[in-house]
Amino acid sequence: MNKTVVTTEEPVFVPEHKFADFDINAYLKKNIEARGYDLPTPIQDKAIPHALLGQDVVGLAATGTGKTAAFLIPLIDKVMKQKGEHVLIMAPTRELAVQIEKELAGFARGLGFRGMVAVGGANIGPQISQLRHDPAFVIGTPGRLKDLMERKALNLSGFGTVVLDEADRMLDMGFIDDMRMILSKMRKERHTLFFSATMSKEIERLIGDFLSSPVIISVKTRDTPSSIDQDVVRIPRGKDKFEVLAEMLKDRDFSRVLVFGRTKHGVEKLAKALSRLHIYAESIHGNKTHGARIRALEAFKAGKVTVLVATDVAARGLDIPAVSHVINYDLPSTYEDYVHRIGRTGRAAHKGKALTFVPER
Questions:
Q1: How many CB atoms are located within 10 Å of the residue 110 CB?
Q2: Angle subtended at Cα 208 by Cα 218 and Cα 315, rounded to the nearest 5 degrees
Q3: Residue 192 and residue 269 in one domain
Q4: Are 267 and 346 members of one domain?
Q5: I want to staple 285 with a disulfide (CB 3.0 to 4.6 A). Which of 93, 179, 264, 321 is the partner?
Q6: What is the residue-averaged pLDDT of the chain?
Q7: d(CA 75, CA 86)
Q8: What are 234-264's pLDDT values in tens digits?
Q9: Where in the sequence is the domain holding 133, given as residue range(s)?
Q10: For the whole model, what pTM was predicted?
């Protein structure tokens, strides 16, 4: 565990481009500018030019590095220039799919096409209705996409562009067979953008099977940014760790706190126990409906609740601004899970703190 005592300045990234430099539609440029984007992040700076050329891209980058814009901007431009082009975006979780669609709506405002979200935990009827309107972008989780295909509501034979976002997470969640089946139903001549935080043997095999002479872009820096102060909270023998957590959360510095637990049941129980102490908390886990998860997330983002208790479903892809603290109430299963959990704080220009509860033996 590295506790940040002295923060050293990491090298300042100087991009080769500005968003204004890219050869993209003028109205799209205006939308990018209206959202306050000027200089690209490293993954945007390196990936956008290749994606605009129609090259397959493998982007190795952690969450929070701006990769959503790295694939949306060139693909929105592509849809505007190539009439009838359809884009499929696969994501591991409902929350990430919804977040990508929100980003799409912002960049594509007033440009004359639509996108839709296809995720489990939500009523499939409205999703089938939306597909009848022939959306240019379909953003979904593999399980629901497969379900829609089996119902003949989604036909991918006309889709020539695909994004696999958080591909390593989709593999971890057991979606490998669904991913392969979905990709096999698309056009054989395909433009593929592939994003992953890690490069495992399975990821290498997927790249070999489904990408054609890809450009590999790695902008991975150190695993845990210097903007995150990491420490442990030792729980003495005989001490109830819930009491330690509740006492800690009374401190006003803990203004927007993400607490990670191991199990769905444990996370739900913890959120309710905190709320009974007037520490207003919401929960996110796999047993909650899609609508309930989105409502909990929005309440947390809006500051209506100060604590969001979550399983690892919230460890990746969620862009929650200004999380002051991440608390590992239950220890993560792997170092990789730890890195993704604490990456929810210390984002953009903010500092953050990550605390891990460790029982003393």
A1: 7
A2: 50
A3: no
A4: yes
A5: 264
A6: 87
A7: 9
A8: 888 888 999 999 999 988 889 899 999 989 8
A9: 19-218
A10: 0.70
